[in-house]
Amino acid sequence: MLDNTPVPSPCVRNCCLDDSDICLGCFRSLDEIRNWSNADNASREQILHRAAARRQSRPSPLFLTNKDSSPQ
User: How far is residue 9's CA from residue 23's CA, in Å, rounded to a whole number?
Assistant: First the structure.
């Protein structure tokens, strides 16, 4: 029996696009985000694969803690 459950959206509600129109929250392109609701499961899996590759290729951001940013 086939599972017809839709592949869930990777959206983490942290939408902010970089200069290449890639979301910094889920790493989908703007076009992939726009097309998600009409995409079949195979297309959604491809989108997730590309987003994961983008996430892996992006350097990790550096976060400052309060103690790191305190005035000297």
Answer: 13
